[in-house]
Design goal:
three-stranded antiparallel sheet; alpha+beta; 2 domains; about 20% strand; about 160 residues; elongated
């Protein structure tokens, strides 16, 4: 990307940016997927041509899904969600018929490690909390609860599992 005069972002090393005047082009790369966006259509076409000449690639058209995030466009703007991801997560946890909660966790929750408490399946706990961490990208309202629950990844107890559910 440096060859094409793009600057790598300091905050996200998978993001490359090129500014020309008041126009910008951005490329974000994750393993073998990439998103090319910006308001400089000529630069985007040039970069696409250069990348296609150097790498075996295919253009999948307008962005619909990226990293399990659905991208929807309308006249009102661009909207993202993870509905399909949430349904898969609920199915895995056996909670497809669950009811939503307004506040997933109060601030003074009192959740802690207890000496004689029964341990839960650590792998299952870690998988579910990991998926919730990923879900918090589009659901910042659960970020506090997920942050608290992630503190118990090394030795989750039954109370922690109940709270995750």
């Amino acid at each position: 990307m440096k060859k094409y005069e793009y600057t790598q972002s300091n905050s996200d090393h998978t993001l490359f940016i090129k500014k020309m005047g008041d126009q910008i082009t951005c490329l974000i790369i994750y393993v073998d997927d990439m998103i090319l966006t910006g308001d400089d259509t000529e630069e985007m076409a040039e970069l696409r041509k250069n990348l296609f000449s150097e790498f075996e690639m295919k253009d999948l058209g307008p962005l619909k899904y990226f990293l399990r995030i659905e991208v929807l466009r309308s006249r009102k703007g661009i909207f993202i969600n993870q509905k399909k991801y949430v349904l898969e997560l609920l199915a895995e946890a056996g909670m497809v018929d669950c009811k939503p909660a307004d506040t997933p966790m109060v601030q003074n929750h009192g959740l802690q490690m207890k000496e004689e408490a029964k341990q839960t399946d650590r792998g299952r706990y870690q998988r579910l909390v990991g998926k919730l961490i990923y879900l918090s990208h589009t659901r910042p309202d659960i970020a506090y609860a997920v942050g608290i629950l992630s503190q118990f990844m090394h030795a989750a107890q039954e109370k922690h599992w109940e709270t995750v559910l």
